[in-house]
Amino acid sequence: MLDPSIRDQLIGIVGKQNFNDSNEAKLVYSYDATPNFQSLPDAVIMPENKNQIQSILKICSEAGVPIVPRGSGTNLSAGTCPTEGGIVLTFNRMNKILEIDEDNLTVTVQPGVITLDLIKAVEAKGLFYPPDPSSMKISTIGGNINECSGGLRGLKYGVTKDYVLGLEIVLSNGDVLRTGGKLAKDVAGYDLNNLFVGSEGTLGVVTEAILKLIPIPETKKTLLALFQDMDAAAKTVSAIIANKIIPATLEFLDQPTCKVVEDFARVGLPTDVNAVLLIEQDGPPEVVERDIKVISAICREGKAVSVKIAQSLEEAEALSTARRSALSALARLKPTTILEDATVPRSKISEMVRAINEIALKYDLRICTFGHAGDGNLHPTCLTDARDTEEMHRVELAFEEIFEKAISLGGTITGEHGVGEMKSPYLAWKIGEEGVAAMKAIKYALDPKGIMNPGKIFAKDTRKRVVL
Amino acid sequence: MNQKIKNEIQQGFKERLDYDELMNCMRCGFCLPSCPTYGQTDQYEAASPRGRIALMKGVVDGIIEPDESVEKQLNLCLGCRACEPVCPSGVKYGHLLEEARDIIQQKKKHTWPVRVLRRVVFDELFPHKKRMKRVHYFLSFYQKSGVQKAVQKSQVLKVLPGNLAQMEKILPNVPSRKEMKDRPASLPAEGTAVRKVAFFTGCLMDTMFNQTNNATIQLLQKAGCEILIPQQQGCCGALHAHGGEKNTAKRLAKQNIEAFEALEVDDIILNAGGCGAILVEYDHLLKDDPEWKERAAVFSRKVKDFSEILVEQNFIDKELSLSNQVITYQDSCHLRNVMKTSGAPRRLIHAIEGITFREMEQADQCCGSAGIYNITEQEMSMQILDYKMSKVKATHAHTIVTANPGCLLQMKLGIQREGMEDSVRAVHLADLLLEAVNNEGNL
């Protein structure tokens, strides 16, 4: 329960219509896209500018009220679930593209801009913003920055952090911090851009961002390589990279994933083979032609039973769009889908795929795998039912083994979804107690009262280690 | 709403809402951009499909009570079902919504004017063809006797709440008693019959939009169809099912199934997406009725929009032309999202010589008509309509084509609100096609 005087002060800042603590509002801002996490906030607040956010944070800081910044709630690690109550802060009224600077190749945006809207707006000017998380048609740039979202094009073009040039951030005490700028080079002190990107809302509230743009590739081509042997498909991924070709996209889908995606999207994905690689190359036409030829040859050598090239841009686009629906489409099969995004060095991809299959067998679970194979970022997804506690326990054990395996191969517990609350018990496995201590030191230097998205990234000692 | 009613609604949700379906929503949010009310409420999560499913599940799980705000949010949903085709998990949102609304309506105590109105509309009027006709004779008299002009001049309509006065103006010219003859049980094809089909007349379509039904029948005849029109058919029950009167909807469904199942036809044709959507889901409506379930499924499989059959019968090869004009097409939500017909109407319009077809942005989004939504949720409906008209205007269209009576009236209302009566018209696809096939410019 929010103290009535705090409530009045908050209403005073944003107006009655932009503060909502009805049962209805509390319920619909109690979740994100992470299964089995739900917790009611005390209120939802919808500010319209930086000044309002400064005032809100000052009040909440003094009163010790948690602040959970939330974009569109597509988070997959419970990062935007208000597990400790408090105020959910939304950016639906801060959703403008402020400037597309064609001289400096930058775009300046407010955090509530929908990723796909941004991509379309810059493409209309012949420019390109590559980070393309699967949720891009609804995710916000603010969310992408806080999670350092990846996507299908990460392999060749990098992820969100590679495109953030400058940020405006409101700190928990209400101070405003400006980092970076429209600069290709800038070493004035610590690289605070990279500190805030991926900080999951635990350090401050991003209120504006300057993003880097690049010229849009002239053309692109997409192919599907079909395999009966999953291992052969995974080895082909490594072979393509080892041949010094970096495709724009190199996605892996196993048979069950292909089946459900095809069931939903009807784009002609094969459903009778055990694994499919969806590969896209972009660039000047002659380079694309040459690379696609070489990639086709590598796939055939790698025992692909068939290699199909998309005949038109529309067909290619339909295939990538269908791939983006994979996780949600898998939800067709069972009531609960729990996915992870363990990531390994790309040379280890076949070993990781094999390990996931063995672990699934060991714990008698149904785990489907798809993901950004080209950058080693896989999405093993367990199909289960949250009501079956016995099976849920096995799911927990299986994912622990998957994390362990990934780390032992030189990988990480999360490539692009963030630690959130879901993976916080495993953070120390990847970065060690020293790493956790260093991160906590940063956290409390910037947010001494701990009001910024509490309970995320760092597991509480008192909490039992759980997957869910 | 008192505590007892809240408890009863909660119990109803627990017993009747399909929990597996509620869990099937994995909350990815892919539905959000397709939802008109989410867009019009500055992206308020509660006004989205994901939010509404969460509210229903929240009630079942006992996290919240089914209070007025929950009911209000469920009522604010247009039921356009645009969220379903874009849902990768395949959540049957429409079924959940319909069930939840039905439970609330059954448990709720309406005020007496609402009770009377619901009774008149749902029980006394729509299910009875003769009474529907009588209302229309009255309307016809009203329009043709000069009373309408006098009334409009006298400005007494200004006392009507909200947009009802505007709506009165856009009512189509209703055919007189003489023009509205009973239809024969069968009509021959023009030339050799190559296909035998049954025609679902609907209630509004056969009274207020009688001419559109006539046009549709003529088009089918021209396409080589022999047409059977069973006399025992009645209202489709869509308004009832969406309005929380499921039992009446079921009764009407059975009446229609009986009327059509004796006929030896593979296709049941109609020209109203709103009716079609419930007809193709009679099997779902009657899923718990063992005697009717299979019969309903047989019926539902046969239902098709007239545009589909025209395309199948190569109607586009006929000579079709119209004077130079820009045409745009507004999808009927239920035709598109439930009957899955969106290509055929466009192909037919494209086939007309002399016109320019210009697709409007978000033609697949609801116009705000949504059955009786433009009366029950006027404010949101008009907000959505104004947004829609901004998209229409961007095409510079002279003609807006739709394929459902509710959408047609709403488009007419939109034209009027924008003051574009002199330059823009709204027509049903069947009327447009008849105009195009009969055009004197054709050789």
Automatic annotation (TrEMBL), chain A:
Known cofactor(s): FAD
Pfam families recorded: FAD-oxidase_C, FAD_binding_4
Ranges where the FAD-binding PCMH-type domain occurs: 37-216
SUPFAM superfamilies documented for this protein: FAD-binding/transporter-associated domain-like (SSF56176), FAD-linked oxidases, C-terminal domain (SSF55103)
Keyword Membrane: no
One cellular component term from this protein's GO annotations in UniProt: glycolate oxidase complex
GO molecular function, one term: FAD binding
PROSITE patterns: FAD_PCMH
UniProt keywords, alphabetically: FAD, Flavoprotein, Oxidoreductase
Family, as annotated: Belongs to the FAD-binding oxidoreductase/transferase type 4 family.
Protein name: FAD-binding protein
From TrEMBL, chain B:
Cofactor, how bound (note): Binds 2 [4Fe-4S] clusters.
Cofactor: [4Fe-4S] cluster
Every 4Fe-4S ferredoxin-type domain range: 15-46, 68-91
Alphabetically ordered keywords of this record: 4Fe-4S, Electron transport, Iron, Iron-sulfur, Metal-binding, Repeat, Transport
Keyword Acetylation on entry: no
GO MF annotation terms: 4 iron, 4 sulfur cluster binding; glycolate dehydrogenase activity; metal ion binding
EC number of this enzyme: 1.1.99.14
Keyword Iron on entry: yes
Reaction it catalyzes: glycolate + A = glyoxylate + AH2; (R)-lactate + A = pyruvate + AH2
EC category: oxidoreductase
Role according to the record: Component of a complex that catalyzes the oxidation of glycolate to glyoxylate.
Official protein name in the record: Glycolate oxidase iron-sulfur subunit
